[in-house]
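Handout, section 4.2: multi-component inputs.
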Amino acid sequence: MSNNDMFGGSGSLHCDPTDLALLSLGEEVDIDTEHLDSCADCTRETASLRRIARLSRQVTPQAATSPPTSVWTAIAQEMTSNSATISSATDSNVIPMRQRKAPWIAVAAAVGVIVGSLVGVVATAENIAPAPVVAQASLTPFPGFTTTGVANVMATDNGDVLAVDLSDLPPANDGYFEVWLIAEDATSMISLGAVNAGQNTQLPIPAGLALDRYRLVDVSAEKFDGDVSHSAISVVRGELSV
Amino acid sequence: MSDPVVRPIRSATSDLTPEHTADAALTQRFVASLAQDQRYAHDMFAEVYQRWSALVYSVARHAMRDDHEASEVTQRVFISAWQSRDGFNPAAGSLPGWLLGITRRRIADRWRERSRPTSNTTDEVPETAEGTEDPRVSQIIDQVVLADELARLGHPPGDIMRLAFYDDLTHVEIAERLSLPIGTVKSHIRRSLTRLRTRLEVTRDEQ
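Output:
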């Protein structure tokens, strides 16, 4: 960007914005003072940056602190008058989550090592290398939850699947967890199915779904209540990127 | 396109960070969710909370000087925001500006409640009319926002600005200290200053 673009440009050449920034910090800068004194734009820019510098010098850099999780719990309770909420706290009523191994990860890695290092050795494990990942989302927890995870869209011979890996899940008191794809503008969502904690739950993605639109991967806490809609209690969410 | 329009930031800034873009997208999703089933809105509101509750809580902590009261204020702010969510107009101000506007009012309420029993004996917290704003909260907001943004500048911009602000080093001295080219230091200084300014403007953009 040239100096004149920055201020809409008229009259004599504006001062270099970088020089104005240094000037606002109190540095001595070799600058066209004649222009600066007569130009309202350059004067205003300097004054504005000077103010930022002055205010910044009055504070100590410190990231904002998150409120305790109890705050969100109270808000969520207020928001949903009658729908039950799932507690993220440890509870006696824990449904143990089945941990499944993903054997293909180890096999695929082994195949890679063999093929990559030994000439003449034929990989005997046929086509079991993982399907290519075409999009990925890292899943981050909603307030009150600590679950994290990753969701991969993989192109398999049988169409796209969403592979979901979750670190852990809160107690599923009389309920379960469901995976959704949500349109970016939040105008619609579709359910892909249930998920348990652990690795690699693979859920088929309906053929023809516009994945570039349904980019948000969401895992919700659901009750066994026959209600097929989203409970409005999301545990994790992430945006798919190619 | 019938998508709601999110008003661009006032200042001419070429230094929009990915964070700004993500914030704009969140605002857009939030506004879109308001027209949907309440469950969508609920869900999206949780995302809004996740993004902005730390700022609200930090402002409340500075204002109340008490963690418990700060939690209470934060709770009230987001419940008020939820209840008045249909009044949020992205064309009139930013989402954080809207939330911080509510924060101002809830803090003023709290201060008023605190001072009421002893209002005859102390003028430490002067009475303000219901729903009015207090310049002291504005100052706290500016400070919290700047402190937060300074902490998020990362490396090397954050290091450069610390040396410039708190050690009063010139850009040449900073370049030497950090073994960076002078041009790099200069452009980081300009970019960081405008980024700080943008963040302040966005959070002040109330309706």
